[in-house]
Amino acid sequence: MSTIFDKILDGDIPCHRVYEDDHVLAFLDINPLSEGHVLVIPKERRAFLHELSDDQAAAIGRVLPRLARAVMNATGCEHYNILQNNGAPAHQAVFHVHFHIIPKLADRGLGVQWRPTSLEGGEELAARIRSGL
Fold it and tell me: Using CA atoms, how far apart are residues 108 and 34, in angstroms rounded to an integer?
């Protein structure tokens, strides 16, 4: 199923590009939460982060800090969020892996409600996660 990001990658829909290389495209969000809100997508077309190849994931990891610095310089922000969602229940709306760089400028930016619980069975859970690596 084609997404809006596929159409951007194919050149069918224009975007305000801020960065591009062989593996990654970054562009301004057309519905920004704050000035300088940037979307960073892999050129590998996958819906979820865990589906990305190691090379594509590494390419995004290399460019995110550079893009964050560029957004900070361009907007004057001192604080920002990096957001990445996987699946509709986790608030993913476009099913192509993407990261948001969202500057926190005064009252603009990402609002988050964090509801922590206590860790139960930590060592057993850590062992289950390690066994999946």
Answer: 5
Q: What are phi and psi of 117, to 5 degrees?
A: -120, -175
Radius of gyration of the chain, Cα coordinates, nearest whole angstrom: 16
- Check if the beta carbon of residue 73 is closer than 8 Å to that of residue 66: no
User: 20-36 burial by CB neighbour count: b if 16+ within 10 A, else e?
Assistant: eeebbbbbebeebbbeb
Domains and CATH numbers, the chain: 4-131 (3.30.428.10)
* Lookup: tokens for 77: 């922000």
Task: Specify the pTM.
Answer: 0.91
98 is catalytic: yes
The one catalytic residue among 37, 96, 98, 100: 98
pLDDT at 42: 98
